[in-house]
Design goal:
The complex is a heterodimer. Chain A is α+β, with helices and mostly antiparallel strands. Chain A is built from 21 helices and 23 strands. In chain B, helix 11 packs parallel to helix 14. Chain B is elongated and about 95 Å long. By secondary structure, chain B is an alpha/beta fold. The chains are: A alpha+beta, B alpha/beta. Chain B: It is an enzyme of class 2 (transferase).
Chain lengths: 696, 582
């Protein structure tokens, strides 16, 4: 739709297509409000977006470019009497910073030539990366240099190609012994780039969280498919003392041999200077599965039978608040757990992986999140989390689609330059869009990034999240099935370090190409994303800094960046007209609680009487414009005819049955459509029955 | 806006639904009638297949139609070549799959699938196993599917170890499903038999020539190495959820499963009564019993101790009068049991009025057989882990009961005190089953008393003030002459009581006995003390009339003693009684 054609009057104009904005848009549209939803960007979902590999590269490039200051146009000609202008910021570039990219794989696919080049290919990758990484680190010191480097990507590519030959020579001998794994080249990543859906945020859906409830309630769920997060893992460190470390090592080794459970034993060889402190504490690290459901506890090989009993008892006792729990209310959760005499093992699981608590979490908060976790178990499987197939960026788009179905108008690459505010009432009467059209509106909702800096409340400095996205060649905890979606909590390696949350996605989530895994790392920023997360990357994965960690997955490509933490922004205190509402960007939490609450809050501010996202009618209950009542009659006749046909010929019946069968199988392989499982969600009924009673 | 919601009045909707249902019914009835008439005419063609298919897909539980379908298919088998038959049956399988989707627990569909699978010229068992797996994933307790799967496994010869892995998987995903545990219990003895000895001779060679020393049949046991692994697995389950009975039942199977061998446990000859009494290890039918007296086969009639028993562990026969009555003669008796090729000798020496030959309960460790005795150390360590669980869950009934069973298997007398304490806890925590625990406790107390009696080598069975609620193991008390059951909670002396053929004195004061059915034809009974019980009518005392030697009867404190003219009536009923206390 061309800009000239935009209607000049709306009930609500929304700028920004992040999750909260999209939910607000759908909510307004559903109750009959006229919605204009625009975004300055060329893609949906703002900082919540998912990108193919190639479009992510474009995004990276954009964030390396200096934002070009647009000259402020004077729109005063459009002012009416008693009105004033508020300019909006033209870019949201402030929300993303410190973007750094590393490639650890060879540039070209050399498979075609001869099979023997496999080895060289591998070696080349190593050599190549060896050369590149120090360079990028030095570049890291100087922001400018780094930017230059990324900008001149093409040049860099040439450089890399040049280094490749060097690498080949260097590592020819070394590579021969370890040429087992076939490495995917950068060219393949680019070629298969469409297989990737790389999220800028990394979150999961709690199966009884507010987002799932909202998706079901509003029927938006029909636009998306979901997969279970299949594993909850944790990352544990060993003891300080030498003896214990050795015994731990042996113990883990036995695990590996005796049982199918695979435990990675990571030995750090390269110790980056800035994490040398933590390395004393964690010389040996391992990934293991957190038993959280009844079946997990039963199957767990890491817990003794007594621990199993204690864990089950604790989990069962969590469901309802006891006097003992109340007594600990404001005291630290860690203290509560300690006094339960659960042992170090269980305490670790409960504290880090189930409650996802930090040192200053109170018992009340800790128990609340434990309860939430437990309630979520068994609704859609044995873990409490869901992940949308094709990535998280789907979710805002689903809400946008719902908004559009009910009449919302969408424009990308379109923005609002300024607001026209009535001086007397301090209300925004209209907006002027990027093409100079005056569009009147009764309410204006805007993403925080578009609010000009001088209008923002500056009480607290903005917080940031550190993010890393890794493309790896295998899972951090290989198991019988390679299609696992894992959630890993990595407790702070040392005091003062942040807890890192890791989500590993497999190709069946449609977020990465076959043969790769996509790993998302998230934590609260202390330094830059690279500073915060690369130590962990080097200890858990095989990179050029840790090349001899042969059991660990190799990193093929990785991206570091910092993103503003939406929960750290106080969006209510901005100096803006009373009918302008601000949505903060993504927050650092695992759930979508923050955005959904914010959207509901905004909706209730504007339309306190209306239902928030009422269920959309089923498509078959909708009569489309232009059709009349008689058409339904025809449909019925058609149905009848079909029935008759089926009555006559058995052939069709069989075919139908066959198709159905295939459909079911597809459903199993792909994602599951969200349903309220209580009334006959057959798909999940078995898991429901088994887990729920145990936990409650 | 793209559309608006259809709104119809509910009455209109109802009417539409009704019409729809009517229409469906009409079609259904018409098709059914067509089917029946075709069957009558003996039409076995594709058309009939199609019409039954339609009907069955809406109602898969219509047995007659499945039968008709089978008739048609069998006819088609005779007229078509193999490839065509294969195709027809494959189509049948996919049709059945759609039926199972509609109703996964339809008897008709599963049975028909089983039939089709066996008729299929080239069966694809892998596909059938896959189908079962899918079904069990959706509902792991679908017994139709379990049955069908067993059939498939049998037909296709899936190796046992793969099936064991299958149970591993099912138990891993839901250890509350007893079907999987049970299946496991059938597989383990096949895969890991107890000893390397060849299976066909499962019984241990008897260490003594006769009688066979081991009362335990070990044919279904599992080798110890595997047992230890199983203990670990099942412990994981009951430590995770101690309230889940599946794991406990499986655990009991692991610990137990020994069955007593059928054998003659005792032969008793009495000169005075001129009878031979034979006791068996379990209730038997007397057909096939043969009695040799001094090498001569005797024609005798076997009677059970009570007319109620057609199957009984104790059988009696009367010898022809005068055959053994002379005390100066010595006699040799042999009882042959043809069915089991077993026999037992008994010598009646000069001057003796009676004689017997038996195995004692202590020798056989008889009462441990419920939990077979594995290596004691294994049981001991199992007891330790159960105790560990009990510390964590002091009120868990499954755990307590298992501890009791383990203690009994290890040392029934040594653990008696602890056992009684645990029973008390059990009665308190599981009120609904308190009577069961009382009965079980009674049983164990009786067993212990039998053991004590045997160690003391006496014929006095004394078990007073032990809260007995029931009597059992009475076949073990064949030789008892004095019995003291006073101050318990017994309500009746059951028909089995008539097995106490040697009983002379019965003390049963201070119980709640209201029924004396079992005091029946006890040839030596002289004294019956029933003070403070609940015998209320004369009719209740009638069984006593069958005991010829009854002299002393104490009925004080019973409702019956308050009846009018009771004394006269009793004198008439029991003429032998000389000392009657009312």
């Amino acid at each position: 739709m061309a800009a000239e054609d935009l209607p000049s009057e709306f009930d609500v104009v929304i700028l920004g297509t992040g999750l909260a904005e999209s939910v607000v848009a759908a909510a307004f549209s559903r109750v009959g409000q006229r919605v204009l939803h625009i975004d300055r960007r060329s893609y949906y979902a703002a900082n919540w977006a998912s990108f193919t590999f190639n479009s992510l590269l474009t995004w990276i490039q954009q964030h390396h470019e200096e934002p070009q200051p647009e000259e402020l146009q004077d729109w005063s000609s459009l002012l009416e009497e008693g009105e004033e202008l508020i300019y909006l910021s033209n870019s949201d570039s402030a929300s993303i910073r410190n973007v750094q990219v590393f490639c650890f794989t060879s540039e070209e696919d050399e498979e075609e030539g001869a099979p023997s080049t496999k080895e060289d290919d591998r070696g080349a990758a190593d050599g190549d990366a060896v050369k590149e990484t120090p360079e990028s680190q030095s570049a890291d010191a100087k922001d400018k240099a780094k930017k230059q480097k990324a900008e001149e990507e093409e040049e860099e590519e040439e450089e890399e190609q040049a280094s490749q030959t060097k690498g080949e020579e260097l590592s020819a001998a070394q590579s021969q012994s370890e040429a087992t794994r076939k490495k995917i080249s950068y060219a393949q990543l680019v070629k298969e780039g469409r297989r990737f859906n790389i999220d800028l945020v990394s979150k999961l859906l709690y199966s009884r969280g507010s987002l799932v409830d909202l998706l079901i309630k509003s029927n938006v769920s029909r636009y998306a498919e979901f997969k279970n997060v299949t594993r909850i893992l944790t990352y544990r460190h060993g003891n300080v003392q030498q003896v214990c470390t050795i015994s731990l090592y042996t113990c883990l080794f036995t695990f590996e041999v005796t049982f199918y459970l695979f435990v990675c034993v990571c030995v750090c060889v390269y110790i980056p200077p800035f994490i040398s402190l933590c390395m004393y504490i964690s010389p040996h690290l391992s990934v293991s599965q957190v038993p959280c459901s009844r079946a997990d506890v039963f199957a767990s090989r890491q817990l003794s039978v007594v621990e199993k009993r204690k864990l089950m008892r604790f989990l069962t006792s969590c469901v309802e608040e006891t006097d003992e729990q109340r007594a600990y209310k404001a005291r630290p959760y860690l203290e509560f757990l300690y006094d339960q005499r659960l042992g170090e093992n269980l305490q670790h699981f409960l504290f880090h992986s189930i409650a996802m608590a930090t040192e200053d979490t109170t018992t009340e908060e800790g128990l609340a999140s434990t309860r939430h976790f437990l309630r979520c178990l068994g609704r859609y499987g044995n873990t409490p989390f869901l992940f949308p197939v094709y990535g998280l960026g789907e979710i805002p788009q689903c809400f946008c689609r719902m908004c559009a179905v009910f009449g919302g108008i969408y424009c990308l690459r379109h923005s609002v330059n300024c607001l026209l505010v009535e001086k007397d009432t301090n209300r925004c009467k209209a907006v002027i869009d990027s093409r100079g059209q005056r569009i009147s509106c009764r309410h204006f909702v805007v993403e925080d990034g578009f609010v000009a800096v001088d209008r923002k409340k500056r009480a607290t400095p903005p917080r940031f999240l550190s993010r890393a996205v890794l493309i790896t060649d295998s899972s951090i905890l290989p198991s019988s099935s390679d299609q696992q979606v894992s959630m890993v909590t990595v407790p702070p390696v040392a005091a003062g370090c942040p807890t890192v949350r890791m989500v590993e996605l497999c190709p069946s989530t449609m977020t990465c190409m076959a043969g790769t895994h996509l790993v998302h790392l998230t934590c609260q920023s202390v330094g830059s994303a690279f500073e915060d997360l690369s130590p962990l990357v080097t200890t858990m994965f095989r990179t050029t800094e840790s090349p001899d960690r042969e059991t660990s997955p190799s990193v093929l490509w990785c991206l570091y960046f910092n993103m503003a933490d939406g929960s750290g922004l106080d969006v209510k205190g901005h100096d803006l007209p009373s009918n302008v509402f601000v949505c903060s960007g993504p927050d650092g939490g695992l759930s979508h609680e923050h955005a959904v609450r914010q959207a509901e809050w905004i909706f209730k501010q504007i339309l306190p009487e209306e239902d928030f996202c009422p269920p959309a009618p089923n498509p078959e209950d909708i009569i489309y414009n232009g059709e009349n009542a008689s058409s339904t009659g025809e449909e019925e006749e058609e149905e009848e005819e079909e029935q008759n046909k089926q009555g006559e010929g058995g052939e069709e019946w069989k075919e139908e049955g066959k198709e159905e069968g295939e459909g079911v199988e597809e459903g199993e392989e792909g994602g599951d459509v969200l349903e309220e499982p209580s009334d006959g969600g057959v798909m999940f009924s078995s898991t429901n029955l088994t887990t729920t009673p145990a936990m409650h | 806006m793209h559309g608006r919601v259809k709104v119809k009045s509910t009455a209109q909707q109802e009417e539409e639904k009704r019409k729809e249902r009517e229409k469906k019914l009409k079609i259904y009835v018409a098709a059914r009638d067509a089917c029946f008439s075709k069957r009558k005419e003996g039409v076995w063609d594709d058309g009939a297949l199609q019409i039954t298919q339609q009907l069955l897909s809406s109602n898969p539980d219509f047995g007659t139609l499945w039968n008709y379908r089978r008739e048609i298919l069998m006819h088609l088998e005779t007229v078509k070549d193999e490839d065509e038959v294969q195709k027809i049956y494959e189509a049948e399988l996919s049709f059945l799959e759609s039926c199972l989707k509609v109703n996964p627990k339809s008897y008709g569909s599963w049975h028909h699938r089983g039939w089709v699978s066996t008729r299929l010229p080239r069966p694809d068992w892998a596909r059938e196993l896959g189908l079962c797996d899918r079904c069990l994933n959706l509902d792991d307790r679908n017994f139709h599917c379990w049955d069908y799967r067993r059939m498939v496994v049998k037909k296709s010869g899936v190796p046992v170890d793969r099936e064991l892995a299958f149970t591993d998987r099912l138990i891993g995903s839901n250890f509350s499903n007893y079907s999987s545990w049970h299946y496991r219990s059938t597989l383990l003895p096949l895969l890991h038999p107890e000893s390397p000895e060849p299976l066909p001779s499962p019984r241990r060679p008897p260490p003594r020539s006769s009688p066979p020393a081991s009362p335990q049949n070990h044919s279904h046991r599992v080798c110890e190495a595997q047992l230890l692994k199983e203990y670990e697995l099942v412990q994981n389950a009951f430590f995770t959820d101690p309230n889940d009975q599946s794991a406990w039942f499986y655990y009991r199977w692991l610990l137990g499963r020994a069955e007593r061998e059928e054998m003659i446990s005792c032969v008793l000859v009495s000169r005075e009564e001129e009878t031979v009494t034979v006791a068996f290890s379990r209730p038997v039918d007397p057909g096939g019993l043969m009695l040799l007296l001094d090498g001569q086969p005797q024609t005798v009639e076997w009677r059970s101790v009570h007319p109620r028993f057609k199957h009984s562990p104790v059988w009696i026969c009367d010898l022809p009068p005068g055959t053994i009555s002379d005390v100066t003669n010595e006699h040799n008796l042999t009882v042959h049991w043809m069915e089991r090729h077993a026999h037992r000798d008994c010598a009646l020496y000069t001057g003796r009025t009676e004689s017997w030959c038996r195995d004692s309960a202590t020798d056989q460790e008889l009462f441990r057989s419920e939990l077979s005795v594995e290596k004691t150390s294994v049981l001991q360590s199992e007891l330790q882990s159960c105790k560990q669980l009990q510390e964590l869950e002091p009120l868990n009934k499954w755990c307590l009961l298992t501890i009791i069973l383990l203690m009994r298997a290890l040392d029934p007398l040594g653990y008696e005190k602890e056992t009684l304490a645990h029973f008390q806890t059990l009665r308190e925590v599981d009120l609904m089953r308190s009577a069961y625990y009382s009965d079980l406790c009674s049983k164990f107390m009786i067993e212990n008393t039998v053991l004590k009696m045997e160690y003391a080598e006496v014929r006095v069975f004394s078990i007073s003030d032990k809260k007995l609620t029931t009597l059992c193991h009475l076949d073990q008390l064949l030789l008892v002459t004095h019995m003291n059951l006073s101050s318990n909670q017994l309500q009746r002396l059951p028909p089995q009581f008539s097995m106490l053929q040697c009983l002379e004195v019965l003390e049963a004061e201070n119980n709640s006995i209201e029924d004396l059915e079992g005091v029946f034809h006890l040839p030596r009974l002289e004294e019956v003390l029933l003070k403070n019980n609940k015998i209320s009518t004369l009719a209740d005392l009638r069984p006593l009339a069958s005991c010829p030697k009854l002299k002393r009867l104490d009925l004080r404190g019973n409702p019956v003693s308050g009846l009018e003219e009771v004394e006269a009536a009793l004198t008439e009923l029991l003429p032998s009684v000389v000392d009657l206390l009312l």
